[in-house]
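May I ask for a sample protein chain and its fold as tokens?
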Amino acid sequence: MTEKKVRALFSREKIITEDSNESRALYDQSRFGELQEGKFYYSLVEGLYLLDKKKIDIIDGKKKKLKVDEFVRKARKIEPNFWIRYVVFRDMRDRGYIVKTALKFGADFRVYDRGIKPGEDHAKWILYPVHEATTLTWYEFSAKNRVAHSTRKRLLMGIVDDENDVTYYEISWTKP
């Protein structure tokens, strides 16, 4: 028996689906999406990850089922840095971490240690995905470190190379 997929709608910066057994199972098992007023809302990176893993079907406003490359094209129009963010998100998820957006912290993602679910404990890291060719000023770098420090989280930089491999660097404050 094949697993029933979640059916969702691509709606601007979010992917939206009804609260169903399938969408609830994705949430309960791996904390995909956020439940608000009887609907699950997924970030674009969550939507692509679930589409790529064949857990979800995403339709556009014209009721057309989106393929992965079509989804990526649409998402890049909304978020120019989408692909780099997705590569880091996918890598962390494939490694067994729960990754959620961190816009209210002024970061891309918050990452929970393995075995920890949002609501059970706080995220361990604030994660910033960047391409290896990207340059950061000391001011930008310091600002990222301050955000992590002020939210009592560790700073994690996910550096994506041209082969879509990710190298992680954890940065911390020290007092001499």
Q: What stands out?
A: The chain has a mean pLDDT of 91. The longest helix spans residues 82-94. Residues 82-171 form a domain with the Trna Endonuclease; Chain: A, domain 1 fold (CATH 3.40.1350.10). Strands lie at 6-11, 14-18, 34-36, 39-42, 56-59, 98-101, 109-112, 125-131, 154-160, 166-171.
